[in-house]
Amino acid sequence: MTQKGLTANDQQALYAKREKIFPREVHGLFAFARVSVAGTFFAIFYGLAWLNINGQQAVLWDLPARRFHLFGLTFFPQDFILLAGLLIAAALSLFFITAIAGRVFCGYGCPQTMWTESFLWIERLVEGSRARQMKLHDAPWSVRKIRIKATKHLLWIGFAAWTGFTFVGYFVPIRELATEFLNLQVRPWPLFWTGFYGFATYLNAGWMREQVCIYMCPYARFQSAMFDQDTLIISYDEKRGEPRGSRRRGSDPAEQGLGDCVDCTLCVQVCPTGIDIRNGLQYQCVSCAGCVDVCDQVMTRMGYDKGLISYTTERALGGGKTQLLRPRLFIYAALLLAIITAIGSSIWLRVPVELDVIRDRMALYRETSEGMIENVYTLRLINMDTHPHEFSINLESELPLTTRQPLASVSLEAFEIREVPLSLSIDPVEITTSTSDVFFSVQASDQPKLTSRAESRFIGPVN
Length: 463
Prior knowledge:
By secondary structure, the chain is α+β, with helices and mostly antiparallel strands. Among the domains are: 228-317, no CATH class; 353-459, Immunoglobulin-like (Sandwich), CATH 2.60.40. The chain contains 16 helices and 16 strands. The chain has helices at 8-14, 29-48, 80-101, 104-108, 111-127, 130-138, 143-168, 174-182, 188-208, 210-216, 219-222, 238-241, 266-269, 290-302, 314-317, 327-349, and strands at 52-53, 56-57, 59-62, 67-70, 73-75, 233-236, 309-312, 353-359, 366-367, 373-383, 389-397, 402-403, 410-412, 417-426, 435-444, 451-459. The strands form five sheets. Strands 8, 9, 10, 12 and 14 form a five-stranded antiparallel sheet that branches. Strands 13-11-15-16 form a four-stranded antiparallel sheet, with no helix packed on it. A three-stranded antiparallel sheet has the order 3-4-5, with no helix packed on it. α3 runs antiparallel to α16, α5 runs antiparallel to α7 and α7 packs across α9 (188-208). The mean pLDDT is 90.
């Protein structure tokens, strides 16, 4: 044993150099599903940033102005609770899907998987099939090899740069950003983040690939907590497939003492993480079902039944009947429905005007030269509507409070934030308690339903 109890073989295994994986291209039902989902996602991601609604970018997180535009709606930091709800709903959706179909999100909906598949498609376009890629990889460096590799990386960099540009376009108006790039007048921060996300895409999808899924993604580590005997997983039917071995097409495996597996290793060749599904369920499996497609094709050519590798459950593999309806699914579904209903109701009932009352905390109260007790407030009004409005300010209190100046209406442009100072005073003889509730409200003159109300306190001495 060497230092810290590890043998030389152990250390070699821990620090072994990564061997590049060359996934074989596969066609079939599940491959078509992955391409369809990825195509839809890319169409939305790269196209949505250019969509305008009423002259405003449909989806834009305007950080400098601290507002988020979403399909005609505008949200402010005060609406952060809605974002938190959406994140919780997304997490519960992932739990719900995982409990039903395992890591199907990793194989079909994960951005890392989609961009990796895109980079692999570019690699096959330039370098050729898996066999040609492996031959080129092992070949000594030459002018031809440099030309092919350079072409591939230039295409990768271009695709990654466009991805970084599009991502930043959701935080900086993309048409404005495009004009800056065309005029070579890009501001430092948009330029930095475009390069950063472009480089991250190039590194993760081009170089690291399966390493992100195996070593960096935490989902692979805790997914087993959401699995049970009725969760769909990709499995190899060992009872049917073993013992494996090659044979001629049309031969009877039973006469040769063999199972249905012909040991062609195609299931390993198409795996994007390089695992052998025949060794059982492994956390590296992303449930892309490439092995299912290629194995079904082999079984068809051999004249055997499909399904040697398939989406199944642990209970079904043991001879039992899969139970689709389980308590945990009802719990996930109920929580998800409750959160989505709450978020939808909040957005539907949301009034696009916000009123915050900030009381001067430098002093509890002050006495004016006229002998009046005075409290100072700042009314912060936010017009979250896409149209300008004129708001009247109203005051409610059990005390006979007066203002230095009559309460005037306030005109606010769309998305404008205005702070209005306000002083309330009262004769000391009218004060019956040290603190009293004060209610402020604003109402749009052209839309009476556009109103907001806030509460504060009036503080004075006790007689």
